[in-house]
Q: What sequence folds into this?
C-alpha cells in the first residue's frame, strides 16, 4: 500500500488563527480515503492547500513522487488531482454540457484553441457518457444555474471526470443532498474506485463515510489525530472527545490581559450564588411546531417541534449538517419555514422579517464573528441599541453592560478586529444585551476558542440565564453545552432525535454513535 | 438544421443591408452617420470579446482606439502616403500597434480583479491621454493631420463605410469563432467562477491576456479608420473617456456576452447620438432622450435587450411546450 498523495508537516495560519499545524496526511492509492473532524478542524483548508488555493508557510505536499507544494490550481489539476467544493461551484450561465467541456484537456497552441470549436465529437460523446453515468444526461442543454442542489453536486463530480484525474478530492459530497441521491453518489464513488480512482472525501455524514471509506483520518484543531480503518477510528475514544469536546478547563483570565487583578469569579461564580428563580412549571417562551424549512434544495428541517422554557438554557446539539443553524435561521426570520409554526410568548411569528423578530426581543449571535471590524469596541456595542431612540436609556444599558463585560470599557477605543476571537465573542454578547432581549440565541459560541477562553464564554452564558434571560444555545462542544443546560435537544438529519434534561441527553449511551455514525434507535422521550 | 435556417436568413439580411445601405441611401449626412456607427459596432463587438465573455469590465479601450489612430497617422505622414485607398492598407498596422500595447497593459491590469481591474484600466487610459498631450512625436494638443483622401465629393463617405463594413464582418466572425471555441468556453467559465475554472486546469492568466490582446486589434484598426475619416488625430478625441464609457453602455444596452447584443447596442446608440447631435446640434437635448432610453432598457430588460428578449422568448416557449417531450440530449448549446 503506497501513499499516492502525501501531506507532510503543513502549517497554515490566517491572521492569528492556526488552521493547520504540522498536519500530515497520506492518501493511499486505489482507496477511498475519508477525512473527518469537527467544524473548524481544518479539513477544507487542507483541501485548499493540496489543490493550490492556499499557499503554506511550511510543510510539503507530494503527489506521485513529485513535490507540488504551493503549485497553482491549474497545474495541480493538470497533474491529476481534481476537487469539488463544499458549496458546489459551477459555471451557472453555461449549459450542463458546456460545464463538462471546460475541463477537457488538450495540448494545443493558443491559436488553435481560439479557432477550433469547443468539444470535439469524441469529447462531447465522452461528456454525455459521464452525464449518463451520474444520471443527468437529459439536462445537458439546460443552464447549470437551473439545476437542483443534488444535481449540481453530480454535475460537479462529472465535470472533474472529463479530465480523468487519478485522485478526486470531494468536499462534503453528501452535504445537503437527499438520502436517495446520497445513495446514488455513494454508488458512483464506489464504482469509480473499482475502476482505479483514488478518493479523499471530507464528509460529515458518518454513515456515508464509515460505509464507503477504506481508511479514515480524523483532523482536530489542524492536526491529524488518528488514521485507520473506519471501525478502529470509531472506537477510538480520542475521536469522540474531538467531536463532543473535552472536559472543561478552569476559566482563566485570558481575555483581559490588562485587567489589574484576576476576577473571573466576580463575573461568574459570585453571581451564581444568588437564589435561582423557582424551577416551578414555567411557560414556554418559544415553540416550534412541525417546522419544515430549507434553502431551495429540499427541506433541511423536517417536522421539527421544540419548546424553549423561559428563564432556562436549552442546548441543541447534533452532528454537522443536522440542521441546527437552519433551525436558528427559521426562528430569527432569516429563513421562512415552508410549513409549520413558530410562536414566541404565545404569538405566531412564523415568517416575520428579521427586524420584527429582533424587535420582539429575540437576539441572535451568529456563528461567524459578526463585529464591524473597523469600528471601535464601544461603537460596536452601541450599534446593538441602534433602534433605541432614548439616549439616556442607551447610556444606562451601556453602563450595565460594561459592568458585566469589563473588556467593553477597557478596550473601548480599539478596533474590534484587533481583539482575539474570544474577546470578540464577549463583545458580541455585550452588543446583543444592549437590546435587553428576552431570548438570546447563540450559534456555536465556543467555536474556534481555546479551552480556557471557552470556559469563560460558558460562564457568561450561565450569567445571562441567572439574570433571567432565556438562552437557546447551539453547541458543537456537546458536553460543555449540555452540562449547563436544563434541556437538551439532539438534532440529526433535520429531525429531533432526543429531548430530555441536559444530563439525560449527555449520558445517553447512544450519543456517541450519533456523532460517529450508527444512528440513534431509542429516544428518551417521544418526539412525535 | 431546421433551427439554423432562420438564423442564417437573419444573417443574410443583415449583410445585405450592410452592403446596400450607401447604395440606397446616398445622403452624405446619413452615410457619415453610418461610418461612425459601423466603427462603433466594430469597437463594441471587439470590446465584448474580452469584457463580455470574461466578465472583466474594461474601461480603457480608448487606449487602443487612440493608439491605432496615432499609429496610422504617423505612418501615413512619415512614409508619405498620398491619401486614397493606400491609407486603408495601414489599418492592420494600427491594429497591430494596439495589440502590442495591449500586452503590457494586460499584464499589469489583469493582475487585479473586479472593481480594481476597472479602476486600473481607467488609470492606464489617463496615462496614455497625458502622454499624448505631452510627448513630442504626437504633436501635442494640435495632434497630427492625416492625408486628405482623394475620393469624389459625392461619394466621399463610401470607401470609409465599406472598409469599416469589411472590418465589422471580420470582427463579428472573430467574436463568433471565439464564442464557440474551447478558448471562448474557458473565458465564459472565468466569467462565471474564475477560481473554479483555475481548479479545472484553465490557465486563467493566459486566457484573459489573449482575449485582451485579441480585443484590442480591431479597435486599433477602426481607430485608424475613424481618424482618417475625420482627417486629424488629437489627444482629446483619440483618448476620449466618453469612448470608454460608450463601449460599455452600448454593450450593456444590447446585452454583453452575446454576439448580436453589442451590434444592436452600438447600432442604436451611436446612430441616435450622431443623428441627435446633427439635428439638435449643441442644445444637448439629445442627452435627455439618450438617458431616458437607457433607463427604460435597464428597468425593463436589465440584462440587456438581446438576453432579456431571449429570456422572455424561452419562458414563452416553455409555457407553450410544457407537455411536449424534453429536448434531445446533446442539442446545440
A:
Amino acid at each position: 500500500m503506497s501513499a499516492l498523495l502525501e501531506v507532510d508537516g503543513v502549517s497554515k495560519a490566517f491572521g492569528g488563527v492556526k488552521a493547520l499545524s504540522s498536519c500530515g496526511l497520506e492518501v493511499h492509492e486505489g482507496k477511498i480515503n475519508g477525512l473527518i473532524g469537527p467544524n473548524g478542524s481544518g479539513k477544507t483548508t487542507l483541501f485548499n492547500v493540496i489543490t493550490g488555493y492556499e499557499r503554506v508557510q511550511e510543510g510539503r505536499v507530494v503527489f506521485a513522487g513529485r513535490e507540488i507544494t504551493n503549485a497553482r490550481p491549474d497545474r495541480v489539476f493538470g497533474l491529476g488531482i481534481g476537487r469539488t467544493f463544499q458549496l458546489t461551484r459551477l459555471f451557472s450561465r453555461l449549459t450542463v454540457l458546456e460545464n463538462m467541456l471546460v475541463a477537457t484537456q488538450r495540448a494545443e497552441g493558443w491559436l488553435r484553441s481560439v479557432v477550433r470549436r469547443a468539444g470535439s465529437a469524441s469529447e462531447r460523446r465522452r461528456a454525455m457518457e459521464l452525464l449518463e453515468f451520474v444520471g443527468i444526461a437529459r439536462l445537458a442543454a439546460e443552464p447549470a444555474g437551473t439545476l437542483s442542489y443534488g444535481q449540481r453536486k453530480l454535475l460537479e463530480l462529472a465535470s472533474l471526470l472529463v479530465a480523468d484525474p487519478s485522485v478526486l478530492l470531494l468536499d462534503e459530497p453528501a452535504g445537503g443532498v437527499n438520502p436517495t441521491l446520497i445513495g446514488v453518489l455513494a454508488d458512483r464513488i464506489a464504482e469509480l474506485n473499482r475502476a482505479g480512482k483514488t478518493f479523499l472525501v471530507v464528509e460529515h455524514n458518518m454513515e456515508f463515510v464509515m460505509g464507503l471509506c477504506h481508511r479514515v483520518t480524523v483532523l482536530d484543531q489542524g492536526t491529524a489525530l488518528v488514521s485507520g480503518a473506519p471501525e478502529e477510528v470509531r472506537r477510538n475514544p480520542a475521536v469522540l472527545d474531538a467531536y463532543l469536546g473535552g472536559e472543561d478547563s478552569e476559566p482563566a483570565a485570558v481575555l483581559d490581559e490588562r485587567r489589574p487583578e484576576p476576577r473571573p469569579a466576580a463575573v461568574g461564580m459570585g453571581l451564581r450564588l444568588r437564589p435561582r428563580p423557582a424551577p416551578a412549571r414555567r411557560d414556554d417562551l418559544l415553540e416550534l411546531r412541525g417546522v419544515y424549512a430549507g434553502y431551495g434544495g429540499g427541506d433541511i428541517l423536517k417536522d421539527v417541534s421544540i419548546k424553549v422554557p423561559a428563564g432556562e438554557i436549552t442546548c441543541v446539539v447534533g452532528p454537522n449538517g443536522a440542521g441546527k443553524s437552519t433551525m436558528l435561521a427559521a426562528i430569527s426570520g432569516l429563513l421562512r419555514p415552508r410549513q409549520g409554526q413558530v410562536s414566541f410568548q404565545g404569538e405566531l411569528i412564523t415568517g416575520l422579517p428579521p427586524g420584527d423578530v429582533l424587535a420582539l426581543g429575540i437576539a441572535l449571535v451568529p456563528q461567524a464573528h459578526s463585529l464591524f471590524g473597523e469600528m471601535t469596541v464601544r461603537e460596536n456595542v452601541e450599534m446593538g441599541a441602534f433602534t433605541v431612540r432614548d439616549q439616556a436609556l442607551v447610556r444606562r444599558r451601556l453602563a450595565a453592560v460594561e459592568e458585566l463585560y469589563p473588556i467593553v470599557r477597557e478596550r473601548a477605543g480599539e478596533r474590534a478586529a484587533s481583539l482575539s476571537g474570544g474577546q470578540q465573542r464577549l463583545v458580541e454578547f455585550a452588543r446583543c444585551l444592549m437590546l435587553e432581549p428576552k431570548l438570546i440565541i447563540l450559534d456555536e459560541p465556543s467555536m474556534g476558542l481555546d479551552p480556557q477562553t471557552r470556559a469563560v464564554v460558558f460562564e457568561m452564558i450561565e450569567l445571562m440565564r441567572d439574570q433571567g434571560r432565556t438562552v437557546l444555545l447551539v453547541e458543537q462542544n456537546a458536553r460543555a453545552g449540555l452540562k449547563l443546560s436544563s434541556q437538551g435537544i439532539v438534532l440529526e438529519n433535520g429531525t429531533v432525535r432526543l429531548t430530555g434534561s441536559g444530563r439525560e441527553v449527555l449520558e445517553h449511551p447512544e450519543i456517541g454513535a450519533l456523532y460517529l455514525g450508527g444512528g440513534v434507535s431509542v429516544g428518551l422521550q417521544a418526539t412525535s | 438544421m431546421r433551427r439554423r435556417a432562420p438564423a442564417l436568413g437573419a444573417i443574410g439580411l443583415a449583410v445585405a443591408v450592410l452592403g446596400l445601405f450607401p447604395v440606397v441611401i446616398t445622403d452624405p449626412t446619413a452615410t457619415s452617420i453610418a461610418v461612425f456607427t459601423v466603427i462603433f459596432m466594430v469597437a463594441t463587438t471587439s470590446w465584448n470579446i474580452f469584457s463580455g465573455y470574461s466578465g472583466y469590465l474594461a474601461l480603457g479601450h480608448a487606449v487602443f482606439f487612440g493608439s491605432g489612430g496615432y499609429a496610422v497617422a504617423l505612418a501615413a505622414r512619415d512614409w508619405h502616403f498620398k491619401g486614397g485607398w493606400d491609407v486603408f492598407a495601414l489599418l492592420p498596422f494600427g491594429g497591430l500597434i494596439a495589440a502590442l500595447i495591449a500586452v503590457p497593459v494586460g499584464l499589469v491590469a489583469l493582475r487585479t480583479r473586479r472593481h480594481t481591474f476597472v479602476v486600473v484600466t481607467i488609470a492606464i487610459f489617463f496615462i496614455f491621454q497625458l502622454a499624448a498631450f505631452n510627448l513630442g512625436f504626437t504633436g501635442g494638443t494640435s495632434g497630427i493631420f492625416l492625408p486628405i483622401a482623394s475620393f469624389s465629393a459625392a461619394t466621399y463617405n463610401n470607401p470609409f463605410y465599406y472598409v469599416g463594413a469589411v472590418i465589422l464582418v471580420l470582427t463579428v466572425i472573430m467574436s463568433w469563432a471565439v464564442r464557440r471555441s474551447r478558448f471562448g468556453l474557458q473565458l465564459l467559465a472565468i466569467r462565471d467562477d474564475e477560481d473554479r475554472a483555475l481548479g479545472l486546469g484553465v490557465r486563467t492568466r493566459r486566457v484573459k491576456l489573449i482575449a485582451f490582446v485579441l480585443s484590442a486589434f480591431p479597435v486599433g484598426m477602426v481607430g485608424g479608420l475613424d481618424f482618417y475619416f475625420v482627417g486629424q488625430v488629437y489627444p482629446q478625441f483619440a483618448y476620449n473617456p466618453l469612448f470608454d464609457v460608450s463601449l460599455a453602455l452600448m454593450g450593456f444596452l444590447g446585452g454583453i456576452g452575446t454576439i448580436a447584443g453589442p451590434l444592436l447596442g452600438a447600432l442604436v446608440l451611436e446612430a441616435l447620438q450622431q443623428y441627435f447631435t446633427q439635428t439638435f446640434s449643441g442644445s444637448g437635448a439629445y442627452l435627455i432622450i439618450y438617458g431616458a432610453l437607457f433607463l427604460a432598457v435597464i428597468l425593463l430588460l436589465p440584462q440587456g435587450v438581446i438576453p432579456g428578449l431571449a429570456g422572455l422568448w424561452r419562458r414563452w416557449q416553455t409555457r407553450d411546450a410544457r407537455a411536449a417531450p424534453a429536448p434531445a440530449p446533446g442539442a446545440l448549446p
Q: What stands out?
A: Confidence is low (pLDDT under 50) at residues 248-281, 518-528 of chain A. The longest helix of chain A spans residues 179-194. The interface with chain B takes residues 51, 53, 72-74, 76-78, 82-83, 85, 89-95, 97-98, 101-106, 110, 113-119, 124, 128, 131, 137-138, 140-141, 159-160, 163 of chain A (CB under 8 Å).
